[in-house]
Design brief:
By secondary structure, this protein is an all-alpha fold. The protein is about 85% helix and about 0% strand. It has a single domain, classed as Amino acid/polyamine transporter I. About 5% of the residues have low confidence.
Length: about 400
């Protein structure tokens, strides 16, 4: 083979590798973003917009800024160390990784019951089938992804497509309501009221629980790690938060448009009511699509990330992790189909979830200064300071939340 031919082949391989890396980075960003946009996301955003009106724009801005600092810290340390979150935690304090894994798996399993239920409700609104049947169909769809040989690639593509569809539909619904955009822009920097609980709830919903590690673990599984990958890893983490932000802003404007017209939102199903008031029966069908896309991506994200926390516990778990992910989905679906949503478990999981972000972020920040975790890497001081403020603040508020629950 001539030198030109060899050079041409090398150029093709380099192009393929770059495309693969770009696809994985985009997939990781969307995995984190769509994992945070579940059924709870739709309800939270609708309810808080009803309560705060245009002032909710300020809450979105602050939560997104804090989300960025939290995610950039986590993604960078995971990428540099080449270790998953619980492995870093075990090096910070032996046994801490096991505790973190228990929190993640219990929380992920419990909340996945709600995600499966949301998927069933989405198909119910979209096609008119019963929620139970819809949840079973959705679970089978999610399971099929992990039965495919290239499950990681398929998961990336499905999640990206679902994310784009959600953005387009929510922007359309927001447009039909003609929201007071000028008022929202003013309140972004000069709100008439500030709700700390709303900020905490949004941060917890966007980057709390298993979502804290979803994107970072996806990059590790795809082999993207090391100091040389940091520029792209950082961009991917910020992009993921930006995608979440676009979705939340679009839904916020849709609800604000409905509220500003004086229309009454049905408290039994606030987000569905908004879509229906905005665009009639077509709007209700659109809600079904958005709800299903939001729920199914959260089902996949919760199962994938939760199982990633126990992969290193035993070689057999690592070898058959796709089947364990499937089992995770089956258990969640069966619980919803035969038992319903066990309120006590969901309350307990919510309390644990409130504690995961400060515990996880605090551990990551300590790990960023341990040589057996990051080697000679120097973590930026400004990231450490902002991350520490978020960890301490969220920790304090999480403890208050737990005390209120019990």
């Amino acid at each position: 083979m001539s030198e030109k031919a060899i050079a041409k082949d090398l150029s093709k391989d380099d192009f393929k590798n770059k495309n693969r890396t770009r696809s994985v980075l985009l997939g990781a960003a969307f995995l984190m973003a769509t994992s945070s946009v579940g059924p709870g996301f739709l309800t939270q955003t609708t309810v808080f917009t009803q309560q705060l009106a245009a002032s909710f724009a300020f809450v979105i801005l602050i939560s997104l800024v804090l989300d960025v600092f939290a995610q950039v810290n986590v993604w960078r340390v995971i990428a540099v160390s080449g270790l998953r979150g619980h492995e870093i935690a075990n090096r910070v304090l032996p046994g801490l990784g096991v505790l973190l894994s228990i929190f993640i798996v219990i929380g992920g399993l419990a909340f996945n019951i709600g995600n499966v239920a949301g998927a069933g409700l989405g198909l119910n609104a979209m096609l008119g089938i019963s929620p139970i049947t819809g949840s079973i169909i959705s679970a089978v769809f999610a399971i099929m992804i992990f039965l495919i040989k290239e499950a990681g690639k398929v998961m990336d593509k499905v999640i990206q497509l679902a994310g784009v569809v959600m953005i387009i539909l929510m922007v359309y619904v927001a447009y039909t309501t003609s929201p007071p955009v000028g008022e929202a822009l003013i309140n972004t920097v000069k709100p008439t009221q500030i709700d700390v609980l709303a900020i905490v709830t949004l941060i917890g919903g966007s980057v709390g629980g298993y979502i804290t590690f979803a994107g970072g673990h996806r990059l590790l599984d795809a082999g993207i790690k090391g100091v040389e990958s940091l520029p792209e890893v950082t961009k991917s983490s910020v992009f993921g938060i930006a995608v979440t932000g676009v979705m939340r802003v679009a839904l916020f404007l849709a609800v604000l448009g409905v509220v500003s017209q004086g229309l009454a939102i049905n408290p039994a199903n606030p987000p569905a009511s908004v879509f229906q008031l905005a665009a009639g029966n077509i709007g209700y069908r659109i809600f079904g699509v958005v709800m299903w896309a939001a729920a199914i991506t959260s089902v996949v994200g919760a199962a994938y990330t939760s199982v990633s926390f126990i992969r290193s516990f035993h070689p057999m778990i690592d070898k058959y992790h796709n089947y364990i992910i499937i089992l995770f989905i089956v258990i969640s679906s069966a619980t919803f189909a035969f038992v319903g949503q066990p309120v006590s478990v969901l309350i307990l999981a919510g309390a644990l979830n409130a504690l995961i972000l400060p515990l996880a972020l605090g551990t990551i920040l300590i790990g960023a200064y341990k040589k057996d975790v990051v080697g000679d890497y120097k973590h930026p001081l400004w990231l450490t300071i902002t991350g520490a403020i978020i960890a301490i603040g969220m920790g304090y508020l999480a403890i208050l939340t737990v005390l209120e629950q019990f």
